[in-house]
Specification:
The protein is α+β, with helices and mostly antiparallel strands and 246 residues long. Helices cover 22% and strands 28% of the residues. The radius of gyration is 19 Å and the shape is elongated.
Length: 246
């Protein structure tokens, strides 16, 4: 960034490793950010690298060392940066090997396991998680009961649960119909659990095996690796191709 070049406050925060750009907009609107000692609640506010930007009483700076991590999250770990109840955080599995501010790209619920990405690059987080990027997420789901194919076909066409519309991109039934591989694009909060529960199907296991072109294959539970430059660039190119904005 050029010395006096201006950028929007949420973009500055995203490049400072605070969170994704959309989450940073929420932080600004919630009154958690000050610029040069003044509270700013407007996301579009312009700043330069010379401005003193403070988030939650701590000054933040543009990140130079960008990090991209793929973790095989075990079940019963939270994909948040903190928890008032003191439950285990997936983020803790990256320490002390990576002692820096990172945050998860999207979420994977407490009981679910599998691929979870971490970064300090808000642009990358936006590229992966923004609905407009159309990034596929693939899951292996196990249930006690057989999964009716008619239910999956209905899910693929789109169905309403508690006033929210959910749509499955594709599926494949396995092992006597008690397991299935599901592919989603947007993937709303706890979507699979909510949709399956609406039909009396309660998953015993939900394991995310892929996000876009990144697979969890080769990573043991609780282990992680850095993404390659090519893997990162593929997400960024996909975002540009789909014209995903702010």
């Amino acid at each position: 960034m050029v010395k006096d070049e201006q950028m929007r406050l949420q973009v500055f925060l995203a490049h400072s490793g605070v969170a994704s750009r959309r989450k940073c907009e929420e932080y600004i609107q919630d009154g958690l950010v000050k610029v040069n000692g003044q509270l700013v609640t407007e996301p579009g506010f312009k700043v330069t690298p010379q401005d003193a930007v403070v988030f939650r009483r701590r000054r933040v700076y543009m990140v130079r060392n960008l990090v991209y991590i793929a973790l095989n999250k075990p079940s019963r770990y939270l994909s948040t940066t903190k928890d008032p109840e003191g439950r285990p955080l997936a983020l803790d599995l990256l320490k002390p090997a990576l002692d820096m501010r990172l945050y998860p790209v999207g979420r994977l619920d407490f009981l679910s396991s599998g691929l979870l990405l971490f970064t300090n690059d808000g642009e990358f987080s936006q590229a992966v998680s923004h609905p407009g990027s159309c990034v596929e997420k693939e899951y292996l789901v196990d249930t006690k009961k057989e999964i009716p194919e008619e239910f999956l076909k209905e899910y693929q066409k789109g169905l309403m649960v508690e006033g929210v519309r959910y749509r499955l991109k594709s599926y494949k039934l396995l092992r006597g119909a008690r397991s299935a591989v599901l592919v989603l694009e947007e993937g709303k909060n706890r979507e699979i659990r909510k949709v399956f529960a609406s039909r009396g199907l309660y998953p015993r296991k939900i394991h995310r095996i892929r996000i876009g072109h990144i697979s969890v294959r080769g990573l043991d539970s609780g282990k992680f690796r850095r993404l390659t430059r090519r893997e990162v660039e593929t997400f960024m190119k996909k975002r540009k191709a789909h014209g995903s904005g702010d």
